[in-house]
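Re: that chain you flagged

S.,

Sorry for the slow reply, it's been a week of failed gels. I finally had a moment to sit down with the sequence you sent. For the record, here it is as I used it:
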Amino acid sequence: MPIKTISELDIGSRRVFIRVDFNVPLTPAGGVADDTRIRESLPTIKYALEKRARVILASHLGRPKGKPDPKYTLMPVAARLAELLGIEVLLTDEPTGDGARKVVSDLRDGSVAMLENLRFSPAEEANDENFARELASYADVYINDAFGTAHRAHASTAGIAKLVGTKGMGLLMEREVKFLGQLLGDVERPYVTIIGGAKVSDKIGVLENLLGRVNQLLIGGAMANTFLKAKGGRLGRSLIEEDKLPLARSFLKKAEQANVDVLLPRDVVAAAGIKAESGRVVPAMEVPDDLAALDIGPETARGFADAIARAKTIFWNGPMGVFESEPFAAGTLAVAGAVAENTKALSVVGGGDSVAAVHKSGVADKITHISTGGGASLEFLEGKKLPGLAALES
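Prediction finished late last night. Pasting the structure tokens below so you have them in one place:
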């Protein structure tokens, strides 16, 4: 069944429960450090308000371990949203209960309430039916606009959807599904995928699902070390998944049979540890015994940039090194710049560090689509059915 979007539903003067992803970083003083996710949700919220809906927003924030924790209150998020919308946003004192029910029942057309952090109750992550039923009792219409949590079968993403008759996806979710779906369909070629991050085990599913679709795979980050060792490299003290070496060898063989060009680092920036103030460039297959590979080297960055420049379709997930440490950020920033420079390609970037690199480089406006869901985008591209989307198909 095709999933309806909010623009296809009758929502005027109705209670519209919107699951958003407001899991944003906070400052030490308790303010919102980065409001990107809040801004991403604005088109859906504003659309509902323009239709004079009574909007109920729900999100989690952090990991409060299933009980109220002032450190994870959504109060600063509600305050920031109120600033962006220019209207009051009422925050309930708990995710469910008499107080929340009173706030929701008092809503007027064109007004907004936000439930307190859903994860203040252990029932949210347990997808508890009673908790989902209570959330559903606040809703005439259910909208999921939280792509970043669509791969989780929680009460607010899966359980509630079975209990509300009118449901669909928000404008952000619609955009995510559109662009990520394109990557699994017929695309313009060459199709280049850049995968980084720490572990082969985290990304092998998406690598294997994309094997029959892409022309080139560019692999960086610590996960590249495992592939390099699988090819006989000496990696010094680099992070390696020893138990995944057979998997890496098998994958490289499959890629060769599928005629997919796999580019691994030719040189790396190595140092004694991530706290080192600088590193030195060494051949990727010959890292000294006392050093660890912490970023791709300049020759590799140029090679990756050349491949990216020729691409017509690009997907990037994961950093090329220890991006959070300045001496080992150059490779990731080089990839961000290369993706942004290819303005003729369809470019999709997903995953926290990749997205951070795009923003840090000041090139976000040159990327076709920046996904708000790292884990969700990977599972989508693995071909998995996301519980949050599956629940909307009826």
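What I noticed first: The CA atoms of residues 235 and 272 lie 12 Å apart.

Talk soon,
D.
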